[in-house]
Amino acid sequence: MEEARRIQSLPPYLFARIDEKIAEAKAKGVDVISLGIGDPDRPTPAHIVERLVEAAHNPENHRYPSYVGMLEFRQAVAEWYKQRSPKIELDPKTEVVTLIGSKEGIAHINLCYLNPGDIALIPDPGYPVYGIGAILAGGVPYAMPLREENGFLPDLEAIPGDIAQKAKIMFLNYPNNPTAAIADEAFYAQAIAFAKANDIVICHDAAYSEIGFDGYKAPSFLQIPGAKDVGIEFHSMSKTYNMTGWRIGWAAGNAKVIEALGRIKSNIDSGVFQAIQEASIAGLLGPQNVIEAVTKVYQERRDLVIEGLNAMGWNLKKTKAAVYVWAQVPKGHNSASFAELVLDKAGVVITPGNGYGEYGEGYFRVTLTIDTQRLKEALVRMKQVFGKFEL
Ligand code: MLT
What we know:
7-stranded mixed beta sheet, 3-stranded antiparallel beta sheet, alpha/beta, 43% helix, 15 helices
C-alpha cells in the first residue's frame, strides 16, 4: 500500500514522538518528569463538569449536534468577548463557528484558502499545525522567522514582495507558543495593513490570551480596527479553563472566513457533542475567577522555572504570558542533543526547539502546566546533575 505523497514525509505529531520517548524511558524504570506538552494539570472547574453531567443525561444531546455549533454556545462566545473587550462586537450567527478544539480549525482553515502552490505565512518557531495544515492542503509554508532581537515578532517588511503576493493566509499567535512573547496593538495594526495590501487572511491563534502575569492582559486581535475585515481569531476552552481533553474551541471574526471554515467542517466532521457545548457555556458565562486562580499558579511556576534556570547559568527575563519558558540551549549543544541529555541524565522531558521549526533550533521549551512539586523536583534534579551550564 503506497501512502499518498502528501503524507510520505509527514512525521508523527511532535508530542506523539515525545510521548514515545517518555514511554521508552518509563519502560527502563525512569521516573520521568515531563515538562513537554502544555497540558494543564489543574482540573476543569467543578461547575463546568457538573453542567456536563447534567447535559449528558439529556437525550436531546445524544443526537447529532449542529455543524457550526449550538447558537447558545456561539452567543456565549460573543458575550465572553464583549466582557473581555467592549470593542469586540460579534454576530454569533455569522461570525462564530464552534470547533473540535482550535487545532482542528487551524488545520482545516488551510483547506479553505490554499490552492496547490499557494503560500501560507507561518511563524517559525511556531505551533507545528500551521505548517503541516498548509502542506496537507497542498500549500507551501513560508517561514516568518521569530527572532529574539525582534521580541519574537515577525518582521513583516522583510517578507519579499513576490512571496506576499502568493500568500493567501498568515498565521499569528500571541501570547506565543513556544516563545511566550507578546504582541501589542500596534503590531496587529501593522499586520492588518499588510494583509489588506496583499489580500491575505489573518488567522490569529489566541490559545494563551487569558494567561497573563503581573497584571498583563493580552489584547485580542479582534479588538484592533479592521481586524474583522481581514481575519479571524482562534480560541479554545483548553488552556483557559483546563479543558484540553474536552476538545472544544472556536473561530470568530470575518463572516466570509467563518462561513468557509464552517462549510469545510460540515463536510468533514459532525460538530461537538452538545453536552460539552452546554458545559462550555457554563464556563464562558460563569465565574471567571477560575482563570485568575490558575494564572496565579502558573505565575508562581514561571518564577520557579526562571529562577531555577538562572541559578544554572541562564539569564532569563520574566515572561508576561502563556504557559511556557523558552530558553537557549547551552554551548556545545543543539536542541535535540540537549533534550536528550536532560532526559538521559535527569529523567526530565523538555521540548526541543527544532520541533517548532528551523528558527527554533538552539532553543528548548519548558511547560508550566505540571504539578508544582514535580516541577520543583525536575529543577532540583537538573541542578544536582548538571550544576551550571555554559551559555
Ligand atoms: C503545546 O504544548 O505546544 C500544545 O499544548 C500542544 C497541542 O496543542 O497540541
